[in-house]
Structure formats: structure tokens, C-alpha cells
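Open question from group meeting: does this chain pack into something compact, or does most of it stay loose? Before anyone orders reagents, we agreed to write out a predicted structure and look at it together. Recording both the input and the output here so the notebook holds the full record.
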Amino acid sequence: MLTYIIPFIILILVVVFIHEYGHYYFARKYGVGVTDFSIGFGKEIFGWNDKSGTRWKICWIPLGGYVKFFGDRNVFSQADHEKILKQYNKEDQEKLFVIKPLYQRALIVFGGPLANFILAIAIFFCIYTFVGKDFTPAMITEVQKDSPAMVGGLKNNDVILEIDGNKVESIMDVAKFITTSTGDIIDFKVERLDQEYLIKVKPNIVFSEDNLGNMINKRMVGIQLGAVNNEINHVKLGPAQAIIHSFKEVYFVSASSLKYIGSMIKGSGDTSQLGGPIRIAKITGQVAEIGILPFISIMAYISISLGLINLFPIPMLDGGHLMFYAFEKVLGRPLSQKMQEGFFRIGMFLLISLMFFTTFNDLKDLGLFN
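C-alpha cells returned:
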């Protein structure tokens, strides 16, 4: 159990700290007072006050964190605009979040997700620079008999160039692009005898083990891959190429996640693959046992997910605040306190419902439900 819990706590501490520091950085940049910087929720384990009056603390429930601004009624940055100015002198009013210009408030809110994306880019950049990136062309060495690949027309010695419009730069990309595809048909562009062909393959959905031994619904086409002329091309990238490929990876993960969420909304996505903290802890522990590099890599992917989810226009998330600011920009005034609280109740219901659903999936994954 400790092999799962300790890596999970380390991952959450880093990813959440970076997220909250993004909020904190822009808040301090624009002169907003910060009263609390918390990693975790609930009762404080330990903490300290800095010279600016911020309470930095670690709390018992390591499933998130928050930055509370000076003058806010709660950690969701709610405040009574009409009353708040009367409570503070002119010097303290300058530290209030709610009176800052709209663009500054938006940047402070956006700072959290932005920091998560920057963390992921930094991790990928370091990996590509110091460890390297694989650019081995993906050649099909075997097409299984009567498989979707054979039915679709894929053949031995085909070199895969693209999958669903995504350029295949490495043999490692093939499984990634097949796994993240959401349509009934997967489009393969291959090179065969110096000519390019577009081949459509309908994958089988097979309930089987992933590389970590977890049972999942896998999209299978029935091919085995190898390197062209058995030549492995793994190279360390220069700074410019490393940053370009880091941005591309963050974009791909974000776009694939949004596409997957869209497929679930339409009813075609596999909701059983949606997991919560328990599944994240399990996978984090399994990956940490493999080595430090896979652990750091999954930290990047979790950071992207946290940044992306927080941009959803759901009250209580950063995206919900940005939605309120969009209304404020259009209306020329903030939404009323009553209306904001109504939206927050809806957001609370949505988040609790999602929490119960993902927890059920997690427990089912552990074999507690059939």
C-alpha cells in the first residue's frame, strides 16, 4: 500500500503546489494580498507565516489545494463587493482581489492552469534534452490473420506515416494514437513500395491487460511493429527542437483529452476508463516501481490533466471564474452575488457527482464491484 500512497502524495504535492503557485505568482505581481497558501484540505498539519502575512500550510487531505486572497469570504474568491470597501482602509483596499481590473483577475485565475502546462513542458523538455526522443520509423512486421488490419488492407513492411491525421514520428506513437482514437474507424496512411496509401481499419475493442497489468478496454487492430532495417533512432534534441516537441506533446494530450470527453458526452466514449484519485494513486505507484523517468513522465501528464480540467467552465473551478469574468465583460458589471451562489451550487453538484462516479469506477477497477 505504501508503494502506491507515497509516490501519489509526492506527485500530488508537486502538481498542486505548481498549480497554486501560478495563482500566487500573478496575485503578488498585481499587488493582491494572499492570506493562505494551502496544499491539501481540512485540518492543518503544519505551516508557517511569511513576512507578507501569507500562511503557508500542509493539510490532512492531499487531494488539492487553494490560495485564499485578502478580503475573500471563502476559498472560492467570493466577496460582497458592496460591503467590502467599507471594511478596509485605503491601503488595505489596494490588496483586494475583487477590485482589480478584469484582465488582472483573469490572469490570476488562469495562472494556475498555465503553471501546470509550463510544468509539463519543462518535464518533456528535460527528457528530450537529456534522455532523448525516439524517432524510429514504424514498420509493420506482422499482420495477424483475420485481424481488423488484414481486413482493412494493411500489409507486412508497410511503414506507418500517419494515424487519424497525426504524424507518426516514432514507433512509440502507433500505440498512443490507436489508444487515443475515438472514432469507429482509424485512418492509417502508410508507405508501401514508395507509394502512399490511405487505409481505413475498424478496431476491435478487447478487454485485456495494459502494460501495467490493469484491465482496460483496448482498441486492437492486430499488427506487430519493428524498426526499418532494424535501426533504432533515439536522439537527444537541441533546445529549440526539444521545446517544439514539448509543446506538441502538451497540445496532443490536451486535444486527445477533449476529444475523449466529447465522445463521452455524445454517448460513444468508454466511461469505464474515467478514473479518480484511487486509480491515479494505483497507476502512479505502478509507474514509480518501474523507475524515476516514467514517474516524472506521468507527473507531466497528470499536470496537463489538472490544468485542462480546471479550465472547464464549471463554477468552483478556475474555468468557472473565467466564465463569470466573461459575463462581466459582456454585461459591464459582475453577476449578482445571488446568481453566483446559484452557479456555485450547480458546480458543487456536478463535481460531487463526478467524484462519486470516478470513485465507483476506481473501486470497480480494484475488483470490489462486479
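Observations to bring back to the group:
The chain has a mean pLDDT of 86.
The radius of gyration is 24 Å.
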